[in-house]
Amino acid sequence: MAKDTEDQSASGGFRMFGALLPYFPLLMLRFGGSFLRLKRDAKKAGKTFHKELLRQGIDETAATQLTEIYLQPSNIKQYVDLFRQ
Asked: Can you give the residue range of the structural domain that contains 10?
């Protein structure tokens, strides 16, 4: 009885995957475009942040370190590493 339930749920999962498969390329294009837009905006904000830190009198090395910390959330590698754990 439990085996039949397992088979049905596995079959339903494969059916759902098959139904979503044709949309996969479009989803990848949209996510890719969103990611590139995020990176572009983050880079622009990082430059502004760095300039403002320097204008406020913070030295170059500290401003660079703070800018790197500021830009960490836009780093996709951290998210990929999070999912691998």
From this structure: 2-84
